[in-house]
Amino acid sequence: MVDTTTRGRRGAMQIPRSRGAVSGLLIVALGVWGALVPFIGPFFDFAFSPDRPWAWTSGRGWLQVLPGLVAVVGGLLLFVSRNRATAMIGGWMAVAAGAWFVVGRAAAGPLGLGDAGEPVAANDAQRVWLELTYFSGLGALIIFLAALAVGRLSVRTARDVAYREALVEPVEPHPVTTGTGPFDQTDAVTEPVGRRRAGLFGRRRRRLRDKLPI
């Protein structure tokens, strides 16, 4: 028989898959964008230097590809997981990836991770747009979506309770208890035997009484 306490704790960690699905899917899309845009952006004159397609640098690897991959993994955990703890891990991974998109360029120099290059832009407006879509704006949006998902996962709603109760197996009644009161299995066996014994003794007493002289 499964311990109800253990079963309850296991059920408390179960959540509907839809809880983090939308945020997870959006984070996956943003992570793919962050990891691929430095390599495909030059095709559309939308790039940081070096503005050549598929040009690999250590700065792009550390500052764009790595956080993009972490965001993709975190978003996938949010999207597919039905376990609260696993989904929370995915959410915090996405938060870390978004934060690295925001602060990575400032930390790359002291850490010796390389440089992401300079925006190839004809005016200030394009320069700001490149900065937002490649780094700071992208990271802030990932952080927002991940924090929203983590906040939803940290709260146990009525829907979670209903989902957990639907997963819990029904408890079978104890074999020795039925109805509204205790039922002893021995009563079902010994009571008829007792009646038969009483009837046997009663017949013997009647026979002896009939044989005795009056």
Whole-number total of structural domains: 1
The amount of beta strand, in percent, is under 5%
Number of helices: 8
- End-to-end separation in angstroms reads 66 Å
User: Strand tally, please?
Assistant: 2
Q: Which of globular, elongated, flat, extended, rod-shaped describes the shape?
A: rod-shaped
Low-confidence blocks of residues: 1-10, 183-191
Describe this structure in words.
The protein has 214 residues and is an all-alpha fold. The protein has one domain. Helix content is 68%, strand content 2%. It is built from eight helices and two strands; from the N terminus they run αααααααββα. The longest helix is centred in the middle third of the chain and has 28 residues, at 84-111. It is rod-shaped, with a radius of gyration of 36 Å.
Descriptive keywords:
214 residues; mainly alpha; two-stranded antiparallel sheet; 8 helices; 2 strands; 68% helix; disordered N terminus
Helix and strand arrangement:
Elements: H1 4-12, H2 21-40, H3 58-80, H4 84-111, H5 124-134, H6 136-153, H7 158-167, E1 177-178, E2 181-182, H8 185-211
Antiparallel strand pairs: 1-2
Helix pairs in contact: 2-3, 2-6, 3-4, 4-6, 5-6
